[in-house]
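Aim 2 progress update. The chain analyzed this quarter is reproduced below.
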Amino acid sequence: MADVVAFVIIPGIDGSDERHWQSRWERQWQRRPDSSAVRIAPASWSRPDLGDWVAAVGTAYGEAARHGDRVVLVAHSLGCWAASAWLRRNPSSPVGGAFLVAPPDPRGPAFPRTAAATFRTVSARPLPCPALVVGSSDDPYCTPTAAADFAARWAARWHLAGPYGHVNSASGLGAWPHGRALLDVLVRRGAHTGRGSGGDRPSARSPRSRSLGTGPAAAAPGAAHEGLAALRARYEPGNGS
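Predicted structure tokens:
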């Protein structure tokens, strides 16, 4: 029987509404026999406290681990920083992958400095599991250059999805099938490299992270391009790689 993948949903400030791709995916996973989903529930949704959010990730991870064979974190916006902070504090907790979409730049002009004051001091450092950062070319909260730099510092793969704003409900992505395809590659990589293994991650010493894109928008300046089709083939079971 196939492994059950348990996804931890980590939204940004105020959570993800019903139209958000995270909420759509969550509903889909809850209906499938081979997956489950748990959403974090911090007490400080509107005025995020980093400690509260990190604790909420830990609580959701514990619940997810009881319902699945592998746990994968799916984070958006400020949730990316909560996910990375929890991973750094719990490096021995098995995680099959971290899918980090549209992380805001804590030092950027649009960052909610007052509402999310405790997040202003976060920094990106190598993560203990396979990770993929997905950014937008016109995100008001983070430039592609800054997002690519976060990916490199997290020792994560990097994909520039295109002009989708903050990659949220307002972006009109619906269920965002391209994002699901990227996540599927990450999940397969986590299964291929082993639970909690970071063995397939780009080197943290490298100034460049790898792109998972399929088109021109994915080739961010300075990022090494690796096609989605090639990654799918690499992580297909039984290919001997």
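The longest strand covers residues 70-76. The chain has one domain: 5-234. These observations will guide the mutagenesis experiments scheduled for the next reporting period.
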